[in-house]
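Progress report, Aim 2. The chain analyzed during this reporting quarter is listed below.
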Amino acid sequence: MWVKVKIKRTVKHRTRKWVKRQSLMLANPQKTRYPFFILSLFMNLFFMAVLTRKEIIEAIQTKAITFSPTIDQFQLQPHAIDLRLGYKFLIPRNWTVDEKGRQAITVSIDDASIHQEQFDEVQLQPGQCFDLLPNEFVIATSLERIEMNAPNLMAILFPRTSTNRRGINLSLSGIIDTGYKGNLIFPMKNEAGNQVIRIFPGERICQVIFQELTTKLSQKEANLHGLTVAKYSDVGSSAFKLDKEDERKLLIEGKLDELKNRFST
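Predicted structure tokens for the chain:
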């Protein structure tokens, strides 16, 4: 059983002047130096309740959020949890050899079979390292398996600033949905010029911020992504998953208007 996490809302302590200024920025994003989606994100973070260290610990103790392996003291931040790098990496493949000869691997939503061949998998052992080559793109996994058990909590995955300073681009890695259970995956790219960046499993690589939803979700609501049940479960598996076939077929045929008409909300 989950226990509702009590969170002190701080919105009422913000000044009207600040809110007005941010609203004007959102209304006129061309006049700011920030992309619209970044402004929207921070406005959402501002108006939604973010769990503090104390509340995160309470959520872990009551099984509202679980981690395996368990979180250590190095990972606890004032209002976030640092996640450690796992042992599994997926490296994009550029070509393959078949009866026709050497063929480039062109990944497209119209060929599900070739999508399975897009990556080579590297599974490290304790004590081994991973050299991220210049401009190389890989998909990494978290050491921790996370379970979002409370129907009123979701989370957002961010890179650590120390990760970005090393030249590793994680960007904004995504949303962790209510009810999610599994390891997390995140794209990594070496943008440190000609430098090779050596990383080790177990490094604190990114962090998770937990937020309270304004309305609880049922398990059915939490599992439904568009018209399909959530497709991300096993570690690394989401790299090979495509969107629903009905959607892909209409997109490939250029029938976007038909898609909108058939599946209107």
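Residues 6-19, 233-237 have pLDDT under 50 and may be disordered. The chain has one domain: 67-254. These observations will guide the mutagenesis work planned for the next reporting period.
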